[in-house]
Amino acid sequence: MARSNLDLILAELQQSESNITHFDEGWSQGRSAFGGLSTAFAVTAMNKRVDSDMPLRSLMVSFIAPIPPGEIKVETHIQRQGKNVTQLSADIWSGGECCLQAMGVYGRARASINVNPTREFQPMPRESGIPFSENTHLAPAFVGYFDGGWAGGGIPFSGSENHKLGLWAKHQIDMNAFPAESLVTIADIPPPVLLSRFKKPPVPSSSLTWSLEFIKPPGEFTIDWFYLEMEMEAAADGYTQQSGLIYSEDGTLCALSRQCMVYFGPAPTGS
User: Fold this and answer.
1) Beta-carbon-side half-sphere exposure of residue 83 (alpha carbons within 13 Å)
2) What are phi and psi of 74, to 5 degrees?
3) Model confidence pLDDT, tens digit, residues 72-91
4) What is the pLDDT of residue 270?
5) Quick check: 90 and 72 in contact, CB under 8 A?
6) CB-neighbour burial class of residue 58 (10 A; exposed 0-12, middle 13-18, buried 19+)
7) What letters, b where the CB count within 10 A reaches 16 and e where it falls short, cover 70-94?
8) Do residues 156 and 195 lie in contact, with contact meaning Cβ atoms separated by under 8 Å?
9) Distance (Å, whole) CA 9 – CA 50
10) CA proximity to 145, closest of 109, 169, 180
11) Cβ–Cβ under 8 Å, residues 142 and 29
């Protein structure tokens, strides 16, 4: 049975001996599942293969084909298991087709040098942004499962040439049972910053590849709200590259994001 609550979707996968779960169309983005959700499937399945004291440190994803609503299955494989680091792969299957491939790197904490470069953290206050709920035309339906809003910069379909986009986001439900998946889904909410150069939707777009590096284990972040700062670094030939910083509400850097995206439509100057 297709589900809409994220915790129930992931719990079904977590408890399934065959790594199967179901989701409904509310989590779709165009023809496919929201990339943060499909990546969370891979994370949940890989988490089942490692010890709890070996948290996720790095994630690399290739989005191969659309994942329609309904049943999905995840196949995992341990590529190498060492004393401190384990590397796994996960393939997501839908309709007999491999639709996503992910690599996860898990590692135990070790004694090391700690380097924390000073970064300016002065985001627009949450209450002064544009709430997701008031601007549904700017975002796909899955954003309705989150609270938050656009917090300045290259807001989608604003006709802006700003290379940066800020936004606040939190889950509407308690995701403490799935800390890594919670952060993964939030980290993939931002659309291509390039969409800010268009004046009206729709302009179909999707991620091709995504890497996410966790500065600290996801389980250490107990604050619900996260601030995301994305920057478009280049765009050409229908592809765009952007990087991002994901912060907790108190300004702690949680993760680093990088994506290669594709968009389909006229050049922004013709929008």
Assistant:
1) 1
2) -115, 130
3) 999 999 999 999 999 999 99
4) 46
5) no
6) middle
7) eebbbebeeeeeeeeebbbbbbbbb
8) yes
9) 20
10) 169
11) yes
Distances (CA, A) of 221 to 9, 161, 183: 22, 33, 9
Which pTM was predicted?
0.94
Identify any residues that bridge with 239 across adjacent strands, giving them in sequence order.
Answer: 236, 262
Rounded to whole angstroms, the Cα distance separating 190 from 244 reads 9
At 29, the amino acid letter reads Q
Whether omega for the bond prior to residue 125 falls within 30 degrees of 0, making it cis, is: no
For residues 98 and 52, is the Cβ–Cβ distance under 8 A? no
Q: Contacts from 145-149 at CB under 8 Å and sequence distance 24+?
A: 145/4, 145/6, 145/26, 145/27, 145/171, 145/172, 145/173, 146/170, 146/171, 146/172, 146/186, 146/189, 147/171, 147/172, 148/189, 148/225
Cα atoms in the 13 Å half-sphere on the side-chain side of 188 = 31
Helix, strand, coil tally for the chain in percent (to 5): 20, 40, 40
User: Which 8-state DSSP code applies to residue 237?
Assistant: T
Place of tokens 């970064």: 119
Of 210, 14, 220, 184, nearest to 109 (Cα)? 220
Residues in the chain where the model's pLDDT stays below 70:
1-3, 136-138, 266-271
